[in-house]
C-alpha cells in the first residue's frame, strides 16, 4: 500500500530552479564560461559540487577556487531567497500537500539543497512535512538512492510504500533505483521515465497518485 509521499523542492513545490540557474549564470558570466539555459538542464537536481563540475565541462580549476566559486554561487542564490513568501509556491502545491495529509499520507522532503530549510521557512510550509531530508542528510545525493531511502526510513515506511515527486531526471533515476513509484513534473523529454507525468501538482489528485499502486 502507498503510505508516503516524498517531494523534491526546487521545481516541484517552488520555482527556485530558476534562481539556481540565474545564480550559476552570474558566476559563469563573471568567469567568462559559456553557460546557457540548455546547459542548465544538466544541473537540475544535482548537488552544488556536481553542478559546478558539469558547468566547467572539463575545465580544470584548483580545489580552493572551486570552494570560492561554490560560495559565490550560493551567495547569489541566497540573495534571491531573501524575499521568498508563500506567493512563491507553485500552483496547487499547498493544496496538494494538505490533501495528502488529510488522506493520512505521511509527507517527506527529499531535496539535494542545503538551503531547503530556508526555502521552506520563506514559503511557510515546514509544518506540512513529517521529515526534512536535505543536502546535509546524506553524502551521495541524486541520482543515488540514499536521500530517498533516508527519508523513507525517517517516515518509518518501506521504499515500496513511497511515491516520489520530482522535476529532475537525476531525481527520477534515484527514485526508480530505490524501488519507489515516481511522479514526474515537467516535459516528457526530461521526466519521461516516471510512472505518471504532469505539468505540476495543480494537475493531479491524491487519488490519482494512490492509483499508481494498481
Ligand atoms: C537541488 C537543486 O534541489 O539542490 C539543484 O535542484 C541544486 O539545482 C541542489 O544544485 C543543491 O542546492 P544548494 O542550495 O545546496 O546549492
Ligand atoms: Mg528539483
Would you write up a description of this structure?
- The protein is of the alpha/beta class and 214 residues long.
- It has two domains: 4-15 and 86-213, Rossmann fold; 17-81, Putative phosphatase, domain 2 (DNA polymerase, domain 1), CATH 1.10.150.240.
- The chain has ten helices and six strands, in the order βαααααβαβαβαβαβα.
- The protein has helices at 16-31, 37-40, 48-56, 63-81, 93-102, 116-123, 146-154, 169-177, 188-191, 206-210; strands at residues 4-7, 106-110, 131-133, 162-166, 181-185, 196-198.
- Strands 3-2-1-4-5-6 form a six-stranded parallel sheet.
- Helix 8 (169-177) links the parallel strand 4 (162-166) and strand 5 (181-185).
- It is globular, with a radius of gyration of 17 Å.
- The model has no long low-confidence stretch (mean pLDDT 96).
- Bound molecules: 6-O-phosphono-beta-D-glucopyranose and magnesium ion (MG).
What are its keywords?
single chain; 214 residues; alpha/beta; Rossmann fold; DNA polymerase, domain 1; six-stranded parallel sheet; 10 helices; 6 strands; 43% helix; binds 6-O-phosphono-beta-D-glucopyranose; binds magnesium ion
N-to-C span? 9 Å
- Calculate Rg over CA atoms: 17 Å
* Individual helix count: 10
**Number of E-type strands:** 6
Please describe the biggest sheet, giving its number of strands, its sense, and whether it closes into a barrel: 6 strands, parallel
Please name the CATH architecture of the largest domain.
Answer: 3-Layer(aba) Sandwich
How many structural domains? 2
Structural class: alpha/beta
Order of helices and strands: EHHHHHEHEHEHEHEH
Indicate the low-confidence ranges by residue numbers: none
Please give the share of residues in helix: 40-55%
- The first-level CATH class name of the largest domain: Alpha Beta
Distinct ligands, ions and cofactors found in the model: 6-O-phosphono-beta-D-glucopyranose, magnesium ion
Strand content: 5-15%
Mean model confidence by pLDDT: 96
Strand order of the largest sheet: 3-2-1-4-5-6
- In the CATH hierarchy, what is the superfamily of the largest domain? HAD superfamily/HAD-like
CATH topology of the largest domain: Rossmann fold
Q: Which oligomeric form is depicted?
A: single chain
User: Quick one: overall form?
Assistant: globular
